[in-house]
Amino acid sequence: MTQADTKLSTHLIHHPYKAPADFESPVVPVHKGSTVYFDNVQAMRERRWLDKSSYTYGLHGTPTTYTLEERLASLEGGLQCLLVPSGLAAIATVSLALLKTGDEVLVPDNVYGPNKSLTEGELAHFGITHQYYDPMSVEDLAAKITPATRLVWLEAPGSVTMEFPNLIEQVRLCRVKGVTTVLDNTWGAGLAFRPFDLLGDGSLGVDVTAHALTKYPSGGGDVLMGSIITRNQPLHMRIKLAHMRLGLGVSGNDAEAVLRSLPSIGLRYHAQDRAARQLAQWLGAQSAVAQVLHPAMPDAPGHAFWKQLCAQDQNSEGVAAGLFSVVIDERFDQAAVDVFCDSLRLFKLGYSWGGPVSLVVPYELPEMRSRATPHIRPGTVVRFAIGLEDADDLQADLAQALAKAFG
Fold first, then answer.
1. Long-range contacts of the stretch 33-42 (C-beta < 8 A, 24+)
2. Residue 204: what are its φ and ψ, rounded to 5°?
3. Taking Cα atoms as reference points, which of 259, 295, 204 lies closest to residue 63?
4. 4, 13, 56, 163: which has the highest count of C-beta atoms within 10 A?
5. 3-class SS at 329?
6. What is d(CA 383, CA 224) in angstroms, rounded to the nearest whole number?
């Protein structure tokens, strides 16, 4: 039909022009669409999306999301990747895909808080039991594995208090016991260590990673997204089918934003690492600070395990993210700590990390842990996420806030 045969509105929708396909630039095109066209009924019946060989519906993937998934898999050393709307969605999808009524999941006591909430809420409602294990004791993890244990969550380092576990031995234990491991790899981001190749010889790795792309892969503090990465096709398919049944997807524009940021992730990660170490070392010398919790600091909990994994080249200073906490001495009450946080000018009060703006959050540690933390000195924990500001400017900001709050 020609324009002469149709009304204008119909012609605009069914316009025959198609742009040539040989346009190429550094930017990955943004493909957006729910409906995908088929040439004929046979093609509609034969197309498959599970192996990424074609497209059937926007929720199951577009050229933009397929490209992001493949690049993220390479970043972490995986073979398969799924995109979800947030880091917490990645955690939830893995647990829902791999656990059923009667199963047990083991979770480190210093796990990301919303993972605890999910475990104690929805998973418990579905008849899935759980235990919290001491992340710094492989023996405690071994003692808690039962015949019902199907999944072990790992974090390296732990949330807020930044303990670095003996990840190699944790994974080795779970492999011997035949238990699936999943690592929250948001801190490592595929840059600090290789989660699927912990020893560097291909012999040992986690089974699954969950990654909050909201953090370093996005880098702008403006995207919510997560990923689930595997190296085992049957395991990937179990998660992928659950992902499909849950109706999870991400927008083309958000995928574009992460694709645009990925080429600079290494530069940003290492710059934030350097600034964080400078500030952590400086804060460790301040009288109001009782303890610095940064895996690269020699006296930090689990420092030797961080060095084993993240500084395998003995001539290297190792790799760490731009995230650390301090313990404000117990002689200062919560009100004084609040004054310190409120007095910061460059640091903003806010959750998340990995973006250009430095953030600070005070925490009530006893409310977050189910077991004692003797390796953490008494006081109030304050977490810093270092952005891309000049480190000297951030140090000056910390100095004036310390003086105002603690004299």
1. 33/58, 33/62, 34/58, 34/59
2. -150, 130
3. 259
4. 163
5. strand
6. 21
Side-chain-side CA neighbours of residue 88 (13 Å): 10
Omega before residue 147 within 30° of 0, cis: no
Q: Strand, coil or helix: what is 12?
A: helix
Amino acid (one-letter) located at 165? P
How many CB atoms lie under 10 A from the CB of residue 184?
A: 24
Output phi, psi for 228, to 5 deg. -125, 120
Q: Would you tell me the crossing angle of helices 334-343 and 391-406 to the nearest 10 degrees? A: 140
Distance between CA atoms of residues 323 and 321, nearest Å: 5
- pTM of this prediction? 0.95
Strand residues in 3-148 grouped as ranges (E): 80-84, 104-108, 129-133
Instruction: Report phi then psi at 142, rounded to 5.
Output: -60, -40
* Per-position DSSP letters for 281-307, written without gaps between them: HHHHTSTTEEEEE-TTSTTSTTHHHHH
Longest dimension (CA), the chain: 84
Q: Give the pLDDT confidence of 195-236 residue by residue, as tens digits.
A: 999 999 999 999 999 999 999 999 999 999 999 999 999 999
Q: Note every long-range contact of 123-129, with CB atoms under 8 Å and residues 24 or more positions apart, other chains counting.
A: 123/95, 123/99, 126/99, 126/100, 126/101, 127/101, 127/102, 128/95, 128/99, 128/100, 128/101, 128/102, 128/103, 128/104, 129/103, 129/104, 129/105
Residues 230-257 pLDDT 10s: 999 999 999 999 999 999 999 999 999 9
Q: Which long-range contacts (CB under 8 A, 24 or more apart) does 367-372 make?
A: 368/113, 368/160, 369/109, 369/110, 370/109, 370/132, 371/109, 371/132, 371/134
